């Protein structure tokens, strides 16, 4: 089928760009969707540092300009406010597709938005947003990396989870906009790979924490750290015996870059196999911030997975990757950032 006129113009411009005009471009041109978010902004830092040109595409639903502001004024950095649910024309070599609200609290906000007629949220972002970015990758011949999630394994019946496990997911539950959304995004990614020859990579990311996480996004590490700093009780949901495996953000970024640059499509689990119950996590937070911090039990959320731990054998073997920063080392790095953002430079929080 004939491309719309604007696509043809962009395609022509792109092919001209491929002709050597005597000016050798340094580095790659890379789009990071969701680049103003937590993981995205750390990835952008690495890409800029190694000399690439980076275009961040973000609608600031959960991301913040502050996360990337330090690159303003750098000619190799661009920031576009754009919702990936809408088509986007750019000429690039690689697409890291991260745009997606990533915390259960955001699914609730999305439900509220839907009630006032804003449909454009988690599921639509995963499906239509991913489709658009794959369409872009196909048109310009860019390599596309999807940040999928360990949630595709649902409430897993296999432990630890290997990439070959198909998962145990409720298709109509309150979390399904996210986990089924990501499963569909994986399907689309493989469809474009097999059907249109797009070079793709799939990462299944396990719980990740670090500086620049949203202060109030409801995820357990950010909740506990903010609560302990504010001298509020740590809210443990359910009996606190459910487990998660927590990865520090620099390890994840290293894994994502290795995956993008490597030869293998994946999917690859990227996570830290160190597994903790929520009560054990609360204890590490108490030891790091405030041994006096109290614990308060709250009812658990619906469909909460009982346990989760990655088998990272495939990433170790094929990407030569494994995490280096354990929770005891990573948590204090996040705490300094949270302390600064909660209390500013004032003395009160600097205990
Ligand atoms: P985040 O909320 O900090 O970042 C997501 C970014 O995407 C935000 O900047 C947000 O504004 C942007 N965004 C959301 N919807 C958009 C849209 N329609 N158009 C344009 N931009 C949009 O979350 P994060 O933790 O940095 O997660 C990044 C990616 O990694 C997500 O795809 C998430 O599903 C995946 N992931 C994260 C974790 C984790 O533990 N952090 C675990 C598994 C998967
Ligand atoms: N798309 C985009 N940017 C591009 C090329 C495509 O946003 O540079 C969008 C396009 O609008 C479409 C989606 O990606 O909605 C899928 O594109 P594709 O060409 O694969 O499918 P088609 O347009 O043929 O349905
Ligand atoms: N959780 C908790 N207290 C909180 C927030 C979350 O005990 O204040 C629990 C939650 O019920 C889940 C685990 O921590 O069992 C991880 O939740 P999170 O939302 O961080 O990640 P996900 O469920 O997406 O893995």
From TrEMBL:
Membrane topology value: Single-pass type II membrane protein
GO cellular component, one term: Golgi cisterna membrane
Cofactor: NAD(+)
Keywords, sorted A to Z: Decarboxylase, Golgi apparatus, Lyase, Membrane, NAD, Transmembrane, Transmembrane helix
Enzyme class, broadest EC rank: lyase
Highest taxon of the lineage: Eukaryota
Ranges where the NAD(P)-binding domain occurs: 32-332
Enzyme Commission designation: 4.1.1.35
UniProt keyword Translocase, yes or no: no
GO molecular function: NAD+ binding; UDP-glucuronate decarboxylase activity
One Gene Ontology term from the biological process aspect of the record: D-xylose metabolic process
Location of the protein in the cell: Golgi apparatus, Golgi stack membrane
Signal peptide: none
Functional note: Catalyzes the NAD-dependent decarboxylation of UDP-glucuronic acid to UDP-xylose. Necessary for the biosynthesis of the core tetrasaccharide in glycosaminoglycan biosynthesis.
Family the entry assigns: Belongs to the NAD(P)-dependent epimerase/dehydratase family. UDP-glucuronic acid decarboxylase subfamily.
Protein name: UDP-glucuronate decarboxylase
Shown segment, full-protein numbering: 88 to 438 of 440
